[in-house]
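quick one if you have a minute, typing this from the bus. theres a chain ive been looking at and ive put its sequence and its fold in token form underneath. please have a look and point out which stretches look like helix strand or loop to you. anything you notice is useful, everything is just below.

***
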Amino acid sequence: AMRMRSLEVREQAIVSRAVLRLFLSGYLGVTPLQLQFSTTGMGKPMLQGTGLHFNLSHSHGIGLLAITRVAEIGVDIEKIRHMENMLFLAQRFFSPWESQYLGSQDGVDLGAVFFQAWTRKEAFLKANGHGIGFGLDRVEVALGRHETPRLRQADGNVTEAASWTVLHLEPCKGFMGAAAIKVPNVRPLTWHWEGKELPQRG
């Protein structure tokens, strides 16, 4: 965290990892300091031998944490905001179908659909352990409020895509989130935690 230049980002990183330790230690019945993390070959944090899979994301003061015993999971959260180069980014990093769909959106929906696509892709890439280096354009996701969240194809494989569940999440106003887990038809339990019992920074 101390390598991060922004104080705000540094504090978010410290707090989010502290909260992660609190929740994981509660599931495992140990103290937060007893947790011993390791990483996959692609750098994804893990707790070997516990049966717990987890993933963490945070953006502009809001965090999203997923914990499960079912299978590997990934989450992503982003603040919905307008960026002048959204369509350029879509053409460069999204599939042709996604880029075309995004181009059909008006100004009101453009940001929401862009981050809907981004968070779903990022959640999948974090779950499968490859991360963003795998290539955002190699996974295609369903988009739009009236479409069931899902992977349309993963690296051209429709069968592989069907083995995943993608969850649409809007943790709070102005934020878009997603979770991806390699099990079909998962039904999540969700909690909104304000964290008021944590000590306040003095």
Notes: The chain is about 30% helix and 20% strand. The mean pLDDT is 88. The CA atoms of residues 36 and 49 lie 11 Å apart. The two ends are 19 Å apart (CA to CA).
